[in-house]
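User: I'm curious whether this sequence folds into something compact or stays loose and floppy. Could you predict its structure so I can see for myself?
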Amino acid sequence: MKYRTFGRTGWEVSEIGYGMWGMGDWTGSDDDESMRSLQKAVDEGVTFFDTAWAYGQGHSEHLLGQLLHANPGARLYTATKIPPMNLRWPARARDPLDETFPPSHIRAYTERSLKNLGVRVIDLMQFHVWHDAWAGDERWQTEMRRLKDEGLVRAWGLSLNRWEPANGIAALKTGLIDAVQVIYNIFDQNPEDELFPVCRDLNIAVIARVPFDEGSLTGALTKDSRWPQGDWRNHYFTRDNLFHTLRRVDAVKQIVPEGMTLPELALRFILQNATVSTVIPGMRKTGHVPANTGASTGTSLPAGVMAELRRHRWDRKPATWSD
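Assistant: Here's the prediction. I'll summarize afterward.
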């Protein structure tokens, strides 16, 4: 496993982290399998774990707490998120701070996450949605400073709306945000345009999420893919979206180098960008862990492959099904 500096925090974190959304509330998750996968990740050198209260209303946080308790000698970095008070994803400009992140709500959910995780301090607390309409409001700024000064939170971050990577830059420029979490993958390359230059200038850590485009870049989806009732993927992969996505995935498959898998190519594309501090694939199954950690090789993809991947950029705009 290779490690990277996590922005101005100075933490050395694994460049392959662990995204814990799936084991919180996706259908088909099994806690025993989740714990085996988490422990396998620690054994493989993973040190950065990203969860949220919203992942099963604290269930994913409890699983991470069990992992921390089982590995008292390991320096594992905990990252979690405060849900918006109105529980609305994505954030909208017309939603006032009083309905999303009033100070009392920020504190209450920080304390709740501390209890769920079983820790005295959270390494990285993030706002689970964000809109820069709130950037200049001093109330969230004051409360996060207090929680940091009280030693309950070490660093603060934002999780940006899908396909809106610039909608957070104003908050970054306050100087109070240490990390930003954004969708970045072979298709979603637009964070490179405006967001990444600001992160480099301000030494803000970048967490790349959704590296496999919600699973499409694993190569496992087909036109007949279906999920149990209530599974979020049924909402996201509408028939129209699934058709267009599969067509693009098929094109990417044609340039996967010999001896490499499509998921490995997807991860290595992201790691090629030095602005990225860590990438957080979901790894609900034990077999996913070595497959993903194996992408941390420290070697670059050939220039010709990168040039081909650049051609697969897909600029998308938020839609009702993309929440």
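Summary: The first strand starts at residue 3 and ends at 5. The chain is about 35% helix and 15% strand.
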